[in-house]
Amino acid sequence: FALRASAVGAPAAMGNCETCLPEEHKAINLETLERAVRSMDAATVMLCLEGGVHVNDPIDKEGHTVMDVYVQENANIMKKSVNIRHRTDDARRFLFDLQGKSTQVFHILHSHGGCLSGRKSPRRPSAAASPR
Fold first, then answer.
1. Which residue in 12, 60, 8, 15 sits closest to 34, CA to CA?
2. CA dist., res. 16 & res. 50, Å (int)
């Protein structure tokens, strides 16, 4: 089976569907999901999860998940909020907005079965588990 050249000279082959997707769907992967969680970007989190990225796939060799990232980033928000009474109104509004985004991201991750690392996912049973 030989590859045919397309009209522009590049070989036509299976697996090049990325060129057919809208721009916002080209970067649907675990790295994009992690970045979206770190920036509390609920729309991109939803796009990744509904695009097929699994919420409990490990993001590193230690097996951490995006829910671990969420917990870390949310803790950072809380640390920033400790001194909120000493901040300007703009800073206060910014932190409240970030907390609202954090809540949205949590609900999306949780509704897709998000778990902290070290806990079993309710959506993806391990291959070693055998039915009784």
1. 60
2. 21
Query: Quick count: other Cβ atoms within 10 Å of Cβ 67?
Result: 23
What's the Cα-to-Cα distance from 130 to each of 6, 89, 120, 125, 126, rounded to whole Å? 48, 56, 15, 10, 9
Do β-strands 11-12 and 4-5 pair in parallel, antiparallel, or remain unpaired?
antiparallel
Taking the chain (132 residues) in runs of 10, the rounded mean pLDDT of each run is 38 48 69 96 96 95 95 87 69 82 96 84 45 42
- Long-range CB pairs of 123-129 (<8 Å, 24+ gap) are 123/54, 123/55, 123/56, 124/54, 124/56
The C-alpha atoms of residue 2 and residue 58 are separated, in whole angstroms, by 38
The answer to whether 116 touches 65, Cβ cutoff 8 Å, is yes
